[in-house]
RNA sequence: GGACGGGUGGCCGAGUGGCUAAAGGCAGCAGACUGUAAAUCUGCCGCUCCUUGCGGGCUACGGAGGUUCGAAUCCUCCCCCGUCCA
């Protein structure tokens, strides 16, 4: 088995404490995976990611397929060696690009025809090709190709996408079983179904029947209200076997992380900490901070007075604002470093709370994160 | 002293009679961002009033006059800047 999931504890809140053992180290769960789409978490070095305590990164099939190409990555010894990262990697399948590059692709039962966002050239991504690419990349966890629909959506569209995703999961699994080194790599399925509870349950049940080593919940946090994201997440995790890791794809805001964890989610990823950092937004326990705002021009405090990260130990808001306003590249690095520390530290604290049975004590604090810090 | 060229909103810079509170850029002020086409994008950016409306008033294209129904745009004089000639 390429991965082994060890469920250590299930809290009365619903939160789960676990360990995901991979060929590239152990991931303490619930975990947050920094997003490194093109084989890099933008702005940070791999050494920084190690310092931050990241145990697993997410990279993207579609992007690495286009550039530098999966054959090239394989030739360079696989993605871990290529990017100098010896801890775990999960690769997204390109399914999200079906959503985010909506005007550049056409979806059919066979696969997705993409017009490259780089040079306009056409590519045809099938569930089988997505598997092959991810095998070439050598990620620890590969994802099946899925169809992610923006919400709110026409029920028929959602149903079609769910049906297609299920069919693709079957094809991906068959292909994967045939050609992958399953002792090194695992393939996770993805549950779709929009905000339709029945569809979600059916989809989950069918995938469980197919016996994947892990299950993802996709197609959420794409336009629907947070309450629905939570509701759907809960509905799906109820259907999933307790001994398999659950990955809620693409979430979330700091204040929402706990909501997902208590619904039985073990893995999450999101671009918010890294992207927003580059756009001048810092996350803190007191809420978010637009570091470029004039009010911070002479603020001697660190971004977050309760934060132990390198940035908060060393730099003031005034300096970070200065860097951002000047367009200095260091702004992106320091802001990203802090935000990812904040996310990873938040997850550490959640894990500790699960271990100690004090999860409910965190609620107030998470509510505060939704506000604006001053 | 003379000949040209030029003076536009915080800055740069379009605009040669009405559609001009005046393009565009920069700076400034805010906001957004959820499996990354994002170091990106959006809004505001003369003052003021209110019933916040493709609302009203005021001020504004070096200065002062003038022509015109109407002037950043045309005329006169003046001031300033640049280049060249004495």
What are the key terms here?
15 helices; 8-stranded parallel β-sheet; 19% strand; alpha/beta; globular; 3-stranded antiparallel β-sheet; RNA-binding; 374 residues
Description:
Helix 6 (127-137) crosses helix 7 (155-179). This protein has 374 residues and is an alpha/beta fold. The longest helix is centred in the C-terminal third of the chain and has 28 residues, at 329-356. The chain has helices at residues 46-52, 61-66, 70-75, 79-83, 95-100, 127-137, 155-179, 197-209, 226-239, 257-261, 272-278, 310-314, 317-325, 329-356, 363-369, and strands at 4-10, 16-22, 25-29, 31-34, 56-60, 88-92, 105-107, 112-115, 122-125, 141-143, 186-191, 215-217, 246-248, 267-270, 281-284, 287-290. The mean pLDDT is 97.
Task: Give me a quick take on this structure.
The protein is 41% helix and 19% strand. It has 374 residues and is of the alpha/beta class. Strands 4-14-13-12-11-10-6-5 form an eight-stranded parallel sheet.
Write the layout of secondary structure elements.
Blueprint lengths: L3 E7 L5 E7 L2 E5 L1 E4 L11 H7 L3 E5 H6 L3 H6 L3 H5 L4 E5 L2 H6 L4 E3 L4 E4 L6 E4 L1 H11 L3 E3 L11 H25 L6 E6 L5 H13 L5 E3 L8 H14 L6 E3 L8 H5 L5 E4 L1 H7 L2 E4 L2 E4 L19 H5 L2 H9 L3 H28 L6 H7 L5
Parallel strand pairs: 4-14, 5-6, 6-10, 10-11, 11-12, 12-13, 13-14
Antiparallel strand pairs: 1-2, 2-3, 7-8, 8-9, 15-16
The protein binds one RNA strand of 86 nucleotides through helix 5, strand 14, helix 11 and helix 14.
